[in-house]
Request: fold
Amino acid sequence: MINKGPLQPSLLSELEHLSKEQLRRLLSDHLTRRKLGLYWESDAIARDAALNANLVFPRRVEAWSHCPTPETPCPNLVIEGDNFDALRLLGATHRGRIRVIYIDPPYNTGNKDWVYNDHYVGPNDRWRHSQWLEFLFRRLSLARDLLAPDGVILVSINDENRARLELLMDEVFPGRRLGSIAWRTRQGSNADQQCFLSVDHEHVLAYGNPGFSFNGFAKSYEMYGNPDKDPRGDWRTSDLTLGYSWKERPNLYYPLLDPASGVSYPPNPDRVWVYASQERLKRGQTVQAKTMEEFIELGQILFPSNDQRVETWPTLDALLAAIDAGDVPKSGRTPLLRRDLPDLEFWVGRPVGFGRPQFKRYKADLRNQTQPLSSWLVPRFEDGDYEADNSFITGTNQEGARIVAEIFGDRAFNYAKPLSLIKGLLKQATRPGDIVLDFFAGSGTTAQAVLELNAEDGGNRRFILCSSTEATEKTPDKNLCRDITAERVRRVMQGYGGKEGLGGSFAYLQLDLIEPADLAFEASPEHAMQLLGLRELHAAIPPGHGPVRQIAGDARLAVLACFDVDENAIDTLAAWSAERLAVYSFRPDTVRHLLEQRGITVNSYSLNDALRRGQVTSQNQ
Reply:
């Protein structure tokens, strides 16, 4: 997609005010734009400015949190604020720690479903598509660095914008595309038809780091058995052919001889043998698997029993007559001997079997113990119409609306994704101890899915939800994050509508933005405690008081924050019951010196550096 006008005011008049580093950045961006792929109007300088505009600090709001045991750290988080700022914060605390990111971003439908630069983006906005792409690019670029080495990001999108988003994802996550999952959003409708098409499906784009794989479904082993008491264990019969014709794979088109009976079996001209013959290999040539002869020697080629039909044609004319009459071995309805096939003379004067050899496949030789996840999700209303075992079955958007109504008593949130969809995706993508992030949290379906999975398998998955208030000039008191996102999670934990609660807790965090120059004046001990707690424990820590507070640790190592370096604080540190101390303070050298005077070795760190770490970057996005 190419737009020719500037998204931001022209930089030409500002060039003389740019630094050398900014000019180099601008030139680099201009030169590297000429490439195959997606192109949209953006401003690299504006990106860097937004990224480094200020520092982001979390502040725990106890009244809106749900912590039945407030004295313990809380790993589940609901973060209120612009998700760009929330991702900047998480970049300083959770980089490389998130196993699964699921998001359902705005779909750029033109229905004022999203805000960019404090303004709703409507259908008549000239740069709507560029603004949408830039909006997502900035957030996805930050999210990329949060993923664990075996992490994955799953992104919901409608059919209209799938192509744009997929190209954008290729830009942000090069080489990491896993595929696209399609699911039915409704049973079919006459609404919104475009001439003849009713769009009843959406997509989930999956991009994963190299170590990621879906969990898949457990394979059924009912077809395996061991009737012949084979010492190699259970086995089943399997096809011995490959989906290529004899012209495509001539080296795999050869007669197969049963050395025990002397009966030969013609190959299928439309499906050649899957294994090579030793006689067809060139000198020095090797094969990935064993040769057909080796499998025969191992007893893994199952030839038909002695009661099969066996024919011997004494002359070529007799063979041709049988071919014309259709009285030759077949695979299904496919005759295995035809006039147009080569080397028909080979079959003259030798016994030819009408049965088909099969392969003896051992359970112990299976490379994967699971069935892979299909890219097509089965709608619940079509369950039973598919033969695939263990299919991923999901509800429609109607399910999402129904569950929201059950929780709140009315339709408090529109367009909620079905719980079965998110729960199924997380069941496939997570393990019991993973962290799940949703930075377009909406009604909080992702948190409910995490809680239900934990209840089913005893797991300890944790969630981080990011949502905004969506307040406007007309609705200044609106707070979607507090009243919908967090409230849904609270009711699911406590129980609703006669349903038993799933238990658990979450901390509600608001974001405060502080200019770097004002850090020493505006950053509070609460800011420092929560930031360090998120970094050290990946959890929100309980509120505390006093000049010295514990962030993490045990009897061997205590991680502490010291906000007032005075005699009382030093006495407290000196008396702390831990073998080793790691202390953050605004005067690290003084703390180290005073404690060493008392014979106490301490790792003393700058609190000022710790608050800045990971938040200001010159990295090109």
